[in-house]
Model the fold of this input.
Amino acid sequence: MAAPAAVGAPGGRRQPVAPPVAARPRRVRGVDVAVVAGYLGLAVLLTSRQWGRPDRLFHQDNDQMLFEWMLARAARAVTAGENPLHSAALNAPDGVNLMANTSVLGLGVPLTPVTLLFGTQAAFLVAVVVSLAGTATAWYILLARRLVGSRVAAAVGGLVCGFAPGMVAQAGAHLHMAAQFLAPPILALVFRPGTDRVRRHGVVLGLLVAYQVFVGEELLVLLALAAGVFAVAYALADRAAARRLTPALLGRLGVGALVAGALLAYPLWFQFLGPGHYQGMPFHARGFQLDAASFTASARQTVLGDGYVPGLLSPNPTEENSFFGPGLLVLAVVVMVWLWRRPLVRALAAVGLLAALLSLGDTVRVDGASTGLPGPYRLLAGVPLLDLVVPARFALICVPVLGVLVALSLDRALALAPVGGGAVSAVPGAEGGAAASPGTGPRGGAAALSGTGSGGGAAALSGTGSGGGGEAAADRPGASVRLLWGGAVAAALLPLAPTPIRTVPTWPVPAFVADGGWRAYVPPGRTLVPVPPVTGAGVSPATFWSARTGLAFTAPGGYFIGPSAAADPTARWGAPDRPTAALLRRAAETGETPAVTDADRRQAVADLRHWRAAVLVQGGLHRGEAVRRTVDALVGPGREVDGAWVWDVRPLVG
Done:
């Protein structure tokens, strides 16, 4: 450290003064590397049941099939120069509007080398690891640079943000919801403490927002809602800071909106008006709500979880977004009472409470029973975009709220470190400077997303959490507080420790398809039709086989969201049902062979011509015998080739 400067003083003596406070260096430390490595190791552990197991998929298998296909499609767009917003590989002959589906191009394009070298399953698992560990790392960086002075506090906060039960539940099925690593940098730019370089930071903000659209638009909607509520709540808590920082904030938002708007104009037009666009959702979003009791329950993917209770309190295993357990919620209440003077804490409380209430849906349920009480989600019924968000996913906003609160509290407890004669040193400030000694913190200043004080000062998403000045404390009381609070945090978080994501078996891709035997049957411009040609929300062999073969062939149907008909843009799962597809699906679901008439055979030929079919292929099915007999009755007997039943329908279709 540089020697203190000296100035003139009465009597000719020179008095030492403290050197000017320097900004916190941004060099990477060994502890940073260790924290990120820990996050990566945990993410790999959570995906361990599927590495090297092509016969296993995560429990929501159809969703994994979809995202594997999207990763394969992104790689094809990169290597073949195809339109990344539309594909004709599925839903022949109409194709799929990828911009209107969760195409995750923001993940698929960078992962192209992994997809090409190791296949779509490896690429999907890498995407899950990056999503979980990347989200934790991004929050760790924001916490360490702007909010807390302790790397330990930042690491624990990042752990909560990246690996909470809701994050693990989403990671097993929904890459677009688990990949939240852009949220912290977006928030850091929106609520930047400085008022300079508005245009530069606005441009970066616009680029990040545009990129987030290609990762997941629903998450961006949730982020915008949370940021808006936070800004209003913080402004009410610290009006002086709001008056000082609002012009620059609005300037950054304006520049960012222009940049993002210019980049997204065509993709968004394609999404809402392009080929294969649709309106609404293929399911009733309001039905996907959380039970109020779920907030204190244990998720099934935790050390204390089971498969029964969560099934009663959440719409499905992928939406267990609110299972925080009683310990963490009690801890959060204590933190809010303890640090309530901080505007940051009050704003976080407002965001978390509103998000929790919205996740309860139209009517509040407790322990599976309706209370008859209306939920605030009803207020969003007519709000564009927000009314399309699944209510249960609003609880994901609570995850970083709780993570930040835990980090702030740990930082405050760890700040009770004895210095010299028992005084407590202030924790260094972030980015802008440090409160180097007791009493030097800016108690009255405001610094949205960067302030250092808490006792009357503002520290929105950046305060150090040290109290804004020195506090006298004896060594023993300080150590006791650190020990007790550390134990309380551990007791609240350990029951939430995640377990490896559950997997289920899947039928392998038939060798006839995987090894390319189908090529002898399918000329250019014709399709391979997996049997049954699923067109609804069921498990789709067309999507799975296409993904695992790198989109080698064109197929009808698939698992996606599209319009109900050419003249009806109402959203539905998959392609509009053809009569033959519906007949084969019934056979697969019931295990019963239907009576096939001549009219059914004529309809089958018409449907095959619509699909431009060259060959029908049946792989493994639980009720495959009934399906095989039905196809035999429709188009004539097939034959077994390389592990699949094959029907060459070129003579029928012409």
Notes: Confidence is low (pLDDT under 50) at residues 1-23, 419-474. The radius of gyration is 28 Å. The CA atoms of residues 451 and 459 lie 4 Å apart. The first strand starts at residue 5 and ends at 8.
